[in-house]
Amino acid sequence: MQKLSILALGLLLCGCAAGPDKNDPYEATNRKIFAFNMAIDHLALRPTAERYNAYVPESARDGIHNVLNNLQAPVVFANDLLQGAPSRAGETAERFVLNTTLGVAGLVDIASRLGVTGHDEDFGQTLGVWGVGEGPYLMLPFLGPSNPRDALGRAGDAALDPTSYIRIKRHLLWSGVRLYGTVLDARARNIDALDGIERDSLDFYGTVKSLYRQHRQSEIRNGMPEITEPDSTE
Amino acid sequence: MQFQKSFMAGFAVVAAFVLSLGLVARPALAATPAEQYITDSVQKGMSILNDTQISKDQRKTEFQSFLLGLTDIQRIGLYTLGQYRRTAAPEDVTAFQAAFKEYAMAVYQSYFAKYSGQSLKVTGSYTLTADETVVKSVTVDPKKPGAKPFEVNFRVLNAGGRQVVVDFSVEGVWIRELERNDFTSYLGQHGGDVKALTTMLKQKAAQTK
Q1: Which residues in chain B have Cβ-Cβ distances shorter than 8 Å to A225?
Q2: Which segments within chain A are labelled E, that is strand?
Q3: Which residues in chain B are contacts of A200 at CB distance < 8 A?
Q4: B-chain residues near A230 (CB < 8 A)
């Protein structure tokens, strides 16, 4: 519900000002939200990620990363099935069983050590596999780059996640801790790469847009050959 | 007790299946010329990056000349200008290309230097057009054998018998495309001023060096 309201807010904020990029008709608004997100990142998220990397040992950070990944496995499994990929669903299930049991509640990614490597799937990708187009590029407050398909995908993933239905005390608090952990983990793991990209970019907004769109398209293809436009330099 | 037994039996089946995955030998296939070219180039590049006998500056110079031989930097530069290439004055395009070369060398160098100590293993290729092939590879980190590898792909052009790299990607993000989006986005914000772009590229190259 919370995600849906954020999505609605994002759509509302983006409902004005058309730019020259046909994939980014709301560029003027998107740029404002991007500036806001960057300010939040530089003020709070990046410094926290830096301290997290400095004070928490790598083995502990790896353990946290593995637990968060393992918690996501049921969502990946459901999306594997929805994409008609039973063998990939089998891999995900195998990883979940191995990592939850031998991997001590997901702390150790024992499955990867045994040769069963993981992959990501989400409902945004599933919609992409089903042929739903990405739609206009959207910059969501706090959540970063997206589009209507992937924003809807976030809500779909929450619906597919069994932990959404577990009735425990302070459910909202635990969900918040998990979301915050996921964001912090991703930011901390990519701190060097993102610093480098920001430093080398001339227009960081344009670079992030390209990164996001290309990466999502590649995730939807699952590494299969892409159809690229012909080389236009000649 | 019954549950425990059946769980253990199920677990044994899963474990046997997992172990069998590692035992199936993959048939050896002959590498295509493009694959061989990338395998050889990766080896050459890694040997420069991991050479501790030479100074840091020497390593940089050697790696940049290696990159210049590997890639068609003029072609990449022109591509990154996008639609602005058609409207820009020829002398502005020439100045841009010189600045782009400096920028790209500095940026690619810093990018690959991060991977020193690791290597790339060519895993296959697919044909894009009659002259172009995409060679696929994954990172191999000897320090972290269980870590999820990155996919690094190279777009190889056969230019009259000579192979050159015209683009490369990491985890599905093509660098030439990324630069084109970055530059055209900058130009869009600055009234299509290619001279301003060239000045910015020179600044960025100096910063990264």
Answers
A1: 126, 128, 134
A2: 138-140, 144-146
A3: 107, 110, 204, 208
A4: 129
Q: pLDDT tens digits for A19-58?
A: 457 899 999 999 999 999 999 999 999 999 999 999 999 9
Q: Is the Cβ pair B188, A215 closer than 8 Å?
A: no
pTM value is 0.82
Query: Quick one: tokens of B18?
Result: 């997992």
ipTM above threshold 0.95: no
Note whether B172 contacts A117, CB cutoff 8 Å: no
Query: Is A210 in contact with B173 (Cβ distance < 8 A)?
Result: yes
Contact B59, B49 (CB under 8 A): yes
How far apart CA B124 and CA B142 sit, in angstroms, is 21
Q: Which residue on chain B is closest to A219 by alpha carbon?
A: B172
What is the mean pLDDT, run by run of 10 residues, along chain B of 209 residues?
48 45 48 90 88 86 90 93 93 96 90 78 91 92 78 91 91 92 95 95 88
Alpha carbons within 13 A on the beta-carbon side of A52: 23
Structure tokens at A5: 């309201």
Greatest Cα pair distance in chain A = 64
Q: How close, in Å, is residue A90 to chain B by CA atoms?
A: 11
Report chain A residues whose CB lies below 8 A from the CB of B72: none
CA distances from A148 to A14, A78, A139, A144, B163 (A): 11, 21, 10, 13, 41
